[in-house]
Amino acid sequence: MADKIRVTVWNEYRHEKENETAHSIYPDGIHATIKSFLDQNDDMEVRLAALDDPDQGLPDEVLNNTDVLIWWGHMSHHEVDDGLVERIRQRVYREGMGFIGLHSAHHSKPFRAILGATGNLQWGDEQHEIIWNLFPSHPIAKGIPACFDLGEDELYSEPFFVPQPDALVFGAWYEYGNVFRAGLCYHRGLGRIFYFQPGHETCRSFHNPYVQKIITNAVRWAKPQEITVKEHCPYIAKGELDPENPEKKN
Amino acid sequence: MADKIRVTVWNEYRHEKENETAHSIYPDGIHATIKSFLDQNDDMEVRLAALDDPDQGLPDEVLNNTDVLIWWGHMSHHEVDDGLVERIRQRVYREGMGFIGLHSAHHSKPFRAILGATGNLQWGDEQHEIIWNLFPSHPIAKGIPACFDLGEDELYSEPFFVPQPDALVFGAWYEYGNVFRAGLCYHRGLGRIFYFQPGHETCRSFHNPYVQKIITNAVRWAKPQEITVKEHCPYIAKGELDPENPEKKN
Amino acid sequence: MADKIRVTVWNEYRHEKENETAHSIYPDGIHATIKSFLDQNDDMEVRLAALDDPDQGLPDEVLNNTDVLIWWGHMSHHEVDDGLVERIRQRVYREGMGFIGLHSAHHSKPFRAILGATGNLQWGDEQHEIIWNLFPSHPIAKGIPACFDLGEDELYSEPFFVPQPDALVFGAWYEYGNVFRAGLCYHRGLGRIFYFQPGHETCRSFHNPYVQKIITNAVRWAKPQEITVKEHCPYIAKGELDPENPEKKN
Amino acid sequence: MADKIRVTVWNEYRHEKENETAHSIYPDGIHATIKSFLDQNDDMEVRLAALDDPDQGLPDEVLNNTDVLIWWGHMSHHEVDDGLVERIRQRVYREGMGFIGLHSAHHSKPFRAILGATGNLQWGDEQHEIIWNLFPSHPIAKGIPACFDLGEDELYSEPFFVPQPDALVFGAWYEYGNVFRAGLCYHRGLGRIFYFQPGHETCRSFHNPYVQKIITNAVRWAKPQEITVKEHCPYIAKGELDPENPEKKN
Q1: Average model confidence (pLDDT) for chain C?
Q2: Is C54 near chain D, with CB under 8 Å?
Q3: A93 close to B (CB below 8 A)
Q4: In this complex, which of D133, D139, D229 lies closest to A229 when CB atoms are compared?
Q5: Is the pLDDT of residue C113 over 60?
Q6: Average pLDDT in the B85-105 region?
Q7: What's phi and psi for D37, nearest 5 deg?
Q8: D207 to chain C, minimum CA–CA distance in Å?
């Protein structure tokens, strides 16, 4: 890992060019808004990628130099190349790249493949949402109060079909009667995954200071750990114990 | 374990004698209402116990013949004898008795001691509550729809200070903006523990058919398993491996 | 789900036809041996399937009438059709089919895809192995002592690259210094997954009565639960709450 | 929390004064040896405490200024004052103090009370032990290879009666056929708990550089998080949501 956390914010980046409301809230795209608040941190180096960029924004030289990949996709999940999905998944599993799925990324190909899930849920129009802090001592909840008012965001409701998380950090309340597990942490292979619910393209959630704080915390939490063990499947002779340290015998 | 599941429903049983509303909803006590719906199951044998009974309702001959202990207490947690708490805890840990904590049992001595928790939370007056099914394939969620309307119950809100559960089965929504992890499963020692939020003494929750179904499911889930391994701390000689099966050597 | 648990035992079924030792231990294939001990249970109905059968043994009419799929594959994982893998995965996620992966299934396509894992580990030649019971109150550990001697089986060693399990039931000790998380439970979508380490084609593990007991327990644990909630992704109007019960409004 | 992590190493500190072997390995006590390797870290400030010190080494002014409490006790668990145990437990739960239990601390009063466990296990004389890294991306496994040879330490064997951990980081192999979950992480209240198996008083484990690295990592992992949420049980009015931020209304 480089000295700074190398973050790539991937965005489908179509709504903001086609939908007037989305454009007015995120004139340069959701990814640019995310970059602008992450850029305020000296320990991060942020770059943008979009579906319509060459190689869908993630050629090898970008992906292999990304420590944490943030993903926002919505209507065009199916256009994401399966080969790219597999490269993302292997980079998480084998090299410990962090993956942060935002909002509609619950249905994105990389999120489903990395986690082992359909990501299904019940959804509906925007309504008043409040985020609750369920795990105040978790690093991603640092600086977050017991709850905060998100204003309006798209409804994502239970039942949410994802594996039980390694940590459930946030819950969501919606005005018309629904709840949602809104912030979830997973480990897969050598990598860490965080999913966070807020962020519809016509809502102002990425301008909310607490949402920004949570995503910033999540980048630091999800960055690759310093790992000396290899993620592979070697043959070892009797008593050889550790192929990386061949002198290690029983 | 006997053929039938031997359930003891323990109740503080004071509100229902002193408070008119509580008395009108639960004329013979919350425990009697719980017994009456559990009694409809051929596989259960239900008995009642109360704080003001001799030995606080749980002399050895009762506790040691209880497969699942259901606990409802509220204002008099501090009166429960510490020796009894320790006997309950050891029966859960060492003999696999199930423990089901209802509503204000979050602050009861046995719940806190068994789990390792303060059980703290934010609380408030009754309001509209909806229960959500977060784990539809869990045995305790059998027959429970995606959500159900509880009517009014006392507010219990996050942050709820309990260990991360082995399974999070239900979530609660409250009208004025709060959420709660309302149904939680734990394993401690050889025993199983379930906590369920509904059940204030002046609310009708224990008459709700879904609440009744959940408690019934929980009794079946929490009953002692058939276990051949002892919960103890024996010295074993080199290669003796299993003191229960002394012939088992390496 | 039918009255009986409909089990399909899928086997690569090549070693036992080509390798003399494997043939002598499992003359009709590993799957036939598994069927023969499962057949002793009145609550199970067992059928066989193999890689070289038409439709790789799992046409729709078989897969869609399977409650629990047991999988043994080794050298020919890559030959398993990707479309079949996806059908298996969706049947687990959406319809709650149980999946039991045995031994080298840690590297099989369905196991990796369902779970979200590479399944990598360190491996080596057969050696003395002992299985330890880490979760005596788990249903899959019913009737299993603190430990049992497996005789010789192929070495599978940590680090094992799988997600943290919902329950870790068994651990393995190997003569030359290795350990392994040998029995692991997961939930994915509506389904349950169990992985169990023993079972190299030239070892006698599937003749071991404790291994047979564990696989039998696992079939009962992994069978589809009675679930009333749908695994889908519906749009719901404000306050409609539950699309399966359209009258359920807030 | 102060700038440095304020660590207190508590030791029963009797064996090293009475047993010749223990004295020769840990002449100033196990706690002094732990202090000496922790002292090499600029971010830690380490102090010693022992059972026979006034107030059993942990008067309020010490305990309340401890960020991480390391605990080694063995034969005199019963002498530890119950009031002290309760103060330790509350400091972990309510103020987020870290607690690291070493070796025979599995049976210590604070470990059992904080966690909710008997801590029972099978034990036996010293034998060859190897520690395996089961979670290479965990912060406590930083710098630890796939496995390392511990030499001889006291046998602690499964079944180990503790709650399922939030993270299982290390496993142990023993020469005569046993395995053990040797490194376990928990969250209780606002605090973090780590248990680590090695460290019998007549074995050299605390001189092992990997054991030292693990305990050092664990101190950094277990230190109190920056938390803005209070661990308490307040009444809140309808829509008041957060008593710490009374203006937060729905």
Answers
A1: 96
A2: no
A3: no
A4: D133
A5: yes
A6: 98
A7: -85, -30
A8: 22
**Distance set, CA C26 to CA A244, C31, C69 (Å):** 36, 9, 20
**Are B134 and A171 inside 8 Å of each other by CB?**
no
Token couple for A213: 């704080």
Compute φ and ψ for D7, nearest 5 degrees: -100, 135
- Phi, psi (rounded to 5 degrees) for C174: -125, 145
Phi-psi region of B103 (alpha: psi -120 to 50; beta: other; left: phi over 0): left
Distance from CA of D49 to the nearest CA of A (A): 27
Q: pLDDT-derived band of residue A244, with 50, 70 and 90 as boundaries?
A: confident
From chain B, the residues in CB contact with A181 under 8 A are 134, 171
User: With an 8 Å Cβ cutoff, are B139 and C241 in contact?
Assistant: no
Contact between D241 and B120 using a beta-carbon 8 Å cutoff: no
- Residue A58: the pLDDT is 98
Question: C250 vs B96, B129, B152, B188, C244, CA distance in Å?
Answer: 40, 10, 13, 37, 15
Q: Do A86 and A94 touch, CB atoms closer than 8 A? A: no
Contact call for A134 and B158, based on CB within 8 A: yes
Q: What is the pLDDT of residue C245?
A: 84
DSSP state at residue B55: G
- D159, D164, D236: residue with CB nearest B124: D236
Torsion of CA B89, B93, B97, B103, to 10 degrees: 50
Q: What are the tens digits of pLDDT across the range D5-36?
A: 999 999 999 999 999 999 999 999 999 999 99
pLDDT at A2 over 60: no
- In the numeric block, which tokens belong to residue A63? 């992906």
Structure confidence at residue A248 (pLDDT):
80
Amino acid at D174: Y
The letter for the amino acid at A51 is: L
Query: Measured between alpha carbons, how far is A211 from A207 in angstroms, rounded to an integer?
Result: 8
Q: What is the per-residue pLDDT across A151-191, written as a single tens digit (0 to 9) for each?
A: 999 999 999 999 999 999 999 999 999 999 999 999 999 99
Positive or negative CA dihedral for B242, B244, C219, C7?
positive
Contacts of B159 in chain D (CB under 8 A): 229
pTM > 0.80: yes
pLDDT at residue A229 tops 80: yes
Query: Under a CB-based contact definition with an 8 Å cutoff, are residues B27 and B21 in contact?
Result: no
Q: Of B238, B240, B248, B250, which to mutate for an interface test with D (greatest number of D Cβ within 10 Å)?
A: B238
Chain C: nearest CA to A36, how far in angstroms? 32
Q: Helices C30-38 and C209-222: crossing angle, nearest 10°? A: 70
Burial classification of residue B54, based on how many CB atoms lie within 10 Å of its CB (0-12 exposed, 13-18 middle, 19 or more buried): exposed
Per-residue pLDDT band at C2 (split at 50, 70, 90)? low
Say if D248 is an interface residue toward chain A (CB within 8 Å): yes
Instruction: Flag whether residue C124 sits within 8 Å of chain A, measured between CB atoms.
Output: yes
Q: How are strands ordered across the β-sheet holding A147-157?
A: A44-50, A5-11, A68-72, A98-102, A191-196, A179-188, A167-174, A122-133, A147-157
Q: What is the ipTM of this complex?
A: 0.96
Task: Please check whether residue A181 touches B, CB under 8 A.
Answer: yes
- Picking from D34, D2, D29, D1, the residue whose alpha carbon sits closest to that of residue D227 is D1
From A122, A164, A177, residue closest to B130, measured CB to CB: A177
pLDDT tens-digit readout, C218-230: 999 999 999 989 9
Q: Which residues of C touch B245 (CB under 8 A)?
A: 145-146
Q: Do A93 and C161 touch (CB under 8 A)?
A: yes
B35 close contact with A: CB closer than 8 A: no
